[in-house]
Amino acid sequence: MDNNRLLCPTCNSNKLMIKYEAKYVYSYVIDNDAPGLKNTAEFLPFMYDGREQTESKQYIECSGCGNQYPCFISHWDERINFKVLQKTLENTKV
After folding, report:
1. What predicted TM-score, i.e. pTM, was given to this entire model?
2. Is 58 exposed, middle or buried (0-12, 13-18, 19+ CB in 10 A)?
3. What does residue 7 show for φ and ψ, rounded to 5 degrees?
4. Contact indicator for 66, 19 with CB cutoff of 8 Å
5. Beta carbons of 50 and 26 less than 8 angstroms apart
6. Which residues 6+ apart lie within 8 Å of 57 measured at CB?
């Protein structure tokens, strides 16, 4: 195994991506000019009054075979390196 490259344990491809999926519910106060207190003359969907994350999923996905391996990365630092990510790939599969 090449220590400088992450490899998919299923197909040995090095074409991997970390993906983060999230689902949010946006809310807009109904007022007289446009939905949302931050909107005035027109409705702009990015000018919401509230946002709540209802679901999330992080995983490493292989472009070669399509397999997904669950992971959780809240921040990137020196402890999250190739060895840690390779261990994640070897120990888990969605």
Report:
1. 0.67
2. middle
3. -125, 140
4. no
5. yes
6. 20, 21, 22, 70
Tokens of 32: 């007289």
Placement of tokens 């397999």 in the chain: 67
Q: Please check the confidence at residue 94 and state whether its pLDDT lies above 60.
A: no
Kindly report, residue by residue over 20-74, the tens digit of the pLDDT: 999 999 999 988 777 888 888 888 888 899 999 999 999 999 999 999 999 887 6
C-alpha torsion angle, residues 77, 78, 81, 83 (rounded to 10): -140
Token pair for residue 37? 């207190």
Q: String of b and e for 19-34 (b: at least 16 CB within 10 Å)?
A: eeeeeeeeebeeeeeb
Instruction: Give tens-digit pLDDT for 12-35.
Output: 999 999 999 999 999 999 887 778
